Amino acid sequence: xxxxxxxxxxxxxMGLGIAQVVAVAGLDVIAIKAxxxxxxxxxxxxxxxxxxxxxxxxxxxxxKNAAIARVLFSSSEQDVAECDLVIESVIEDITTKKExxxxxxxxxxxxxxxxxxxxxxxxxxxxxxxNERGRVAGLHFFNPAPVMRLIEIIHAFETSxxxxxxxxEFSRKLGKDPVLVQDTTGFIVNRLLTPYMLExxxxxxxxxxxxDAIDHAMMTGASMPMGPFxxxxxxxxxxxxxxxxxxxxxxxxQYCSAPHTLIRLVQLGYLGRKTGKxxxxxxxxxxxPNSQLKHPVA
Length: 298
Description:
The protein has an eight-stranded mixed beta sheet, sandwiched between helices. By secondary structure, it is α/β, with parallel strands linked by helices. It has two domains: 5-182, 3-Layer(aba) Sandwich (Rossmann fold); 189-281, N-(1-d-carboxylethyl)-l-norvaline Dehydrogenase, domain 2 (Orthogonal Bundle), CATH 1.10.1040.10. It has helices at 13-24, 40-55, 61-69, 94-107, 123-127, 161-173, 189-205, 211-221, 228-235, 237-251, 260-267, and strands at 5-9, 28-32, 71-74, 85-88, 113-116, 136-141, 150-155, 177-182, 280-281, 288-289.
């Protein structure tokens, strides 16, 4: 199956990033805003992202304009009716996603592939609400989507071999490096990465090291491009907490449970870079460790 038109449900950070990747690869995109309000902000954000690439010399003006022209923004899910592939990137809530899949199956053709960009939720559980289950799979991009090369293609319980092959070819057409993963909570990357970040918080709580010391140690001693606290702030602490909760529900092991400090930060609305404060305080230039975490809750 040759994918020519892609529907993307959700125009947040991930949805827009995926839209940009697909449009730059020369495919038409229908980007659906999943929350109330105008699509103007999303259109502007996409334009700004591509403009920055032009300013850095990584894209010419003609390529930018062509990519923008390929993206149609809408607030109606009905506009994905003629798409060959739909990628949902809405809120990380299984009930919301299952309801969306029910609606999508009534909207698109029987040949259209339905995928989810979930980072930890069960693709099989979403598949279960569909009648045409062979066309359902996971297509997990990483943030920022225009930069990160990996895509995890999630083989759910009844995903067909044809669907997997098509998604592999599609991912490579985008210039990405796909890996096939069975439907396990957290898949590969987040199943390994989430406990790593959680253990760093526990080390902080136990007084083993400070935020900057732990980050520095992992960057210099383990050749990590970012330390665990910088990474958690970059991902978003609410997302890290959600991943922790989903994996813990599956494995019921203490190492996957959320530490108190992470829970408290999310409760206070300190979600990392996107809110200006998390484990680091980004209102300072350069960012410094959050002074309120000198004595974290253990």
